[in-house]
Structures are given as C-alpha cells and as structure tokens.
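pinging the channel bc i need a second pair of eyes. not urgent but kinda urgent?? the chain im working w is below, pasted from the shared doc
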Amino acid sequence: MENLSKNKIKLIRSLRLKKNRDSEQLFVVEGEKIVHELLAENADMIEFICTTDNHFSFDRCYHTDERGMKAISSQKNPGNLLAVVRFPQHENNEGNLILALDGIQDPGNMGTIIRTAEWFGISSIVCSKETVDCFNPKVVQSTMGSLFRMSIEYVDLNDYLSESDLPVYGALLDGVDMYTTPIQEKAILVIGNEGNGISESIKEQVTHPILIPKYGAAESLNAAMATGIILAEYKRVNS
C-alpha cells in the first residue's frame, strides 16, 4: 500500500472549504461505519481511501499513521478510515412530498433532517442558497450515510415555489393545528431557519400554514425535531 502523498494531503485539507468542494466535486467522509457502508453500496463514488490499517484492502487506498490522520481529519478523535468521495449524481426523484429547507444553518440540524427525511421515505430535498452546505463535514457525519441516497438540490427557493403547482405547507406560529389539517400526499413542506423560522418572502408562498400544537412550557422546537414530528404525521395520514 502506498503512503499518502503531500498532494493528496493538500487536497483533503482543501475540501474543508465549500468553494473547493464545489470546484473539485469531492467531499470527505470519515469513520469505519460510514466508509464500510459506502464500500458496500456506492464504492464507485469513492475517489480514494486513507487508512492507518496496513491490512485494509481497497484498490485506491493510501496509508498514513495516526499523526497523519489527525492532520487531515476534521474530527476531534479521528478513526482509522477516511474516504474522499465524489458528489452523488442522483436524478431528481421528487416522489410525493418534497422537503424544502429555508436557511437551515446548523450542520447538526441539517444532517439530522436529512437522516429523518430518509427514515420517513422522503427522497427529495430542495434547499435555499442560504442553507448550510450538505457536504459540510459535520453535516456528512450526522447524516450517517443517508446523504448518499437522497436527491438534494440548492435552488432559488422563491422561484422554485412560485413555479410549482403543488400545495406548499409551512411550519408557522400562526398556522393551523397540523392534526386538523392533514398534509396532502403530493405537496411541498417548508422548514425554516432555527432562529427566525421561514423567511418573509417564502411565507408569501406558503398556501397552507401549519402549527405543531404546544402542550407544555417549552419556548420552541429544534428544527430537526419539528421536521420529524410533521413527517411522522404526514406518513400516518398518507400510508
């Protein structure tokens, strides 16, 4: 097994920045579980793998030591596997419900939303251009592999919604109780920014404002948690 070259180290470190991920069409995946899942399901997406394990078998694999892995990893405690992966090339499979994310900023939230959407059978997500990059290392790790199976597109969300014929549901504080207003099977669901909710311009596109009813004293719900609650009810009604 060849040692990891300086050029490859430079490439891996450069992929911490979105502009470099976009120009190279590559991103980094770390950890045994997620890399082994990639090898089993999407090995053709892998550009190359770095490992501290001398016995790891893959035709595009390079060796580094623990110090070298720490230098290229974005994790506090790196594992022994890191893969450089090509952007997924999914056809836009809109299915029934399309999830639209308006300015989600927290990478952990974004990753959990992607994972939750896959759990509930949602295959298409559209994001405003202000939404955090889905190939951000923290997003990638928190999706736990769901990222590779989803169609995720960054669009001008205003234009996208205005050009769609589908009903647009949005989680809003002045919305109607979602348990009395079932989401139609073919629809768009908008989830807003963690601090400010759905932006004013996007609110104007929402045809069906909905609200998760509150029973306790908590001030608000995490965006990922709210997404899960709404998607669970959507699947219950439309299954």
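so Residues 223-238 form the longest helix (16 residues). and The CA atoms of residues 33 and 144 lie 8 Å apart. — does that match what u expected or am i reading it wrong
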